[in-house]
Amino acid sequence: MGAKLSMKISFRQIDMDDFELCVAARKDAYFCSFGHYDGFDDFINGYRQRVVERLTTLEWFYIHVFVDDQFAGQLEFRSFSPEPETGYVHLIYLKPNFRGLGIAPIIQDYIVSTLSKAGCLRAVLSVSRTNKPALTFYKRHGWQFVRKNPKHDETDFYQLWLPT
Q: What are the record keywords, sorted (predicted)?
């Protein structure tokens, strides 16, 4: 238990020199979500260009998570969505060796704080029904089922009301 307390967790905007970490994170997250890589190549097509464009936009957050200066994970979220005062979380990813160490709640606090400062009252994300560890975490940490995702058979929308 004591080791957890000594971890230094830092959040840094993605540096495009580390883009291969982004693709690796996205690929593993895709597998965790769906249990296969079918469709990943289509999903990743144009990803580099999207990240480059969004890094210059205040409403987008592309963040690498470091634990004791080791790359531990990646976050992708934005402070807008089709619904008013609602941020959208695209990716919360931790490398396998950093899971279960108590880092995810700290990551959620970072996202909540960032979106709150940006004027959001709520956050929404889409999660695969087969990604049991993610679903367990979200339900335990205040996320509530909203509806099935009409654009993707295997995923559902969840929301989290942000503290005001």
A: Transferase
